[in-house]
Amino acid sequence: MRQLSALDAQFLNAETATTAAHVAGLAILDPLDGGLDRASLAALLADRVHLSPALSLRLHQVPFALDRPYWAPDPAFSLDNHLFETALDAPGGDRELSAVVAEIHARHLDRAHPLWEMHLITGLTGGRVAVYTKVHHAAIDGVSGAETLATLLDLTPEGCTGGDPQPATAPEEPPGLVTMLAGAAMRAATHPIQMLGNLTRAAGELDAIPLAASLPGARHIAKAFRTATGDHRDRPVLPPLQVPSTPINGPITAARELAFASLPLKDVKAVAKAHGLSVNDVVMALCASGLRGWLADHDALPDQPLIAAVPVSVRTASARDQAGNQISAMIAPMPTHLADPAERLRATGETMRTVKRRFAQSRSGWLNDLCSLLPAPLTTLAVPAVFRLASVAFPPINLIISNVPGPQFPLYLCGARVLSYYPLSVLTDMSGGVNITCFSYDGMLDFGIVACPDRVDGVEGLLSHIGRALDELLEGRESDEYRVPREG
What are the φ and ψ backbone dihedral angles of 288, each rounded to 5 degrees? Predict the structure, then answer.
């Protein structure tokens, strides 16, 4: 029976009355023959839920939170605890859909059951339907979330069965009380030694860790620790990672607002190809432009770059079927202080090249090392307070931006064609009041933005600025030198 990692448990510990730590996706579908309903979704889930551990396991707590929880089968599993149906009020447009999904997204998952829900949403204009699915971040990361989604989707409207039958062997039972307490005692006894190792490894990346990188002499301290552990490789020098003050950052409330839209992936690729950049570089530049526009609209544009955390999967092939997180993060300045779109794009490309080189030459496990510094009982109590304090006194980043690659061909759910898939992620006090996530699917780049309205009002305006930023780059409005032909 697998125990949650320190990073997995961090997503549980981060939950408060104002933070719900799940990731989600909103699929917009064309029912084609009108056959998508709750009964068909229930039949699909019954057939395939065993293919994804994230959908079939629940938390098994250690008494008194003396150690991190375990994943265990749910002996009382019922789809009634996970599958729901909602009808939109007329006229059933994006505004009504966004309001309903924002309300669902703000609600916490029930830890007494496997940590996921699926909501069928009917009443959309044009005969469309939507399916909103959320899974706790303790159970999945971006890559495993995409793989979980893939187990429910088909390549044709006709679909197929779940393939492998349900395992004939009985599921592994959770550890008993004595076993859990013995494990907790052993980890408590060895924690000082493990903490020293975690601290030494994390110190070697001090100049790449948010907040710590701003300490005087951080780069020299990091190099000294790496040398002491036998790592003599030179690292690229990162740009300054000082976080500017913005209205985005600060304590959040429980309210959520959403915005979602799609951009043509071929246009993003055209910009990337014209400037020798990656698609992700262009996404970062578009987000920088969107944030600059929103901050300028609110007379809150700082004169230094915003600092974004960019999640990176470090999941290996052997861990593909495991619940939990295998992620790290790159910390990247965003040139929101530059007025010219072409210069902003160029600066983003240069910054991301440096950040990627540094990440490739560094230990990717520093995030888990930091989460492991305190023993489990103290972490459970300390994390919410630390997150709230950091949001007020010293936010480590301004926001999180994530780009997850997806399939470039149509997929089907219960015979209905998936038209778009908008990813939606987590807000915390520490990471800021807005999160931008995008997913490439079937020729489009689908953006999902989650915001706390008390921090970022008018989130649709932010999304509009991102769309206009792509138009600027395609049309070369600022400079003929950076004119990119629009593909069509």
Answer: -60, -40
